[in-house]
Amino acid sequence: MKVFQNVQDIGNLQDALKEALEVKRNRFAYQHLGKNKTLLMVFFNNSLRTRLSTQKAAMNLGMNVIVLDVNAGAWKLETERGVIMDGDKSEHLLEAIPVMGSYCDLIGVRSFARFENRDDDYNEAILQQFVKYSGKPVFFMESATVHPLQSFADLITIEEYKEIPRPKVVMTWAPHPKALPQAVPNSFAQWMNAADVDFVITHPEGYELDSKFVGNARIEYDQMAAMEGADFVYAKNWSCPGVSRPEDYGKVLGDYHDYLDWTVSERQMAVTRDAHFMHCLPVRRNMIVTDEVIEGPRSLVIPEAANREISAEVVIKRFLEEM
Ligand code: CP
Question: Among residues 87, 180, 238, 274, which is most buried (max CB within 10 A)?
């Protein structure tokens, strides 16, 4: 594996899940793999879980870890080629990336959607430059369009908590005051489509996700109908993906106050099959989900976040095994 971006990059999902559960039983069993190897984690955006869990995973594997917050202490980076650099950006990504690559064996990068240009975001303009110019293997720690470490952790969590062989998993859009990227729902759709689950997506009209992630997933615009018989409810907000109206890309459609009945509450959970509640966090309470549901006995948000260490460890372990 040279790049970890999509579900296909991890290979057979059953093998990956088996490996994850084995790593979870003894997370220090592979310390020798990372000896004298360095992971560089590059953050263009904030993080709590990704930063801590990925660093912990690398330390479990015996690696040295360097963390760079690009917007806190590094030179401001220009990302566009051909720009006359007479503004506040002192360094170009095209020099910075190979320099970063020279100090490490493996790079993880977080760079969210910018919502300036849909094609740039959906072509992964920033991450692809790391893949091309760093000279090192790269894994995506949430890019413009995907968050594979999160989705792998989500799948591990579903595997651990499912009560029937093929559970019904419902991903529901929920309201949010600010525009959020589509990376988490895109990846979750991609991974659920590859997993052995009955997968349904529900959202208001206008929030259709890109077909390359949705695949053949069932779309149900009636949230309550979608929830019926669900075993897992995965809540997430996303802004308009701009599929049918590119001019709306990255926007919150309408007034979010008009969508507060989409907030996951006991009303929706009551029609499920006593579903587990999931969210990648951070979450705005009583926008995405009520206090009662997130604090309830079926909420998995904490074990789900804890599994981020496991998904990261399996992915980094796979890279190290090929070095
Ligand atoms: N879920 C997740 O990626 O959390 P952070 O943004 O805090 O890393």
Answer: 238
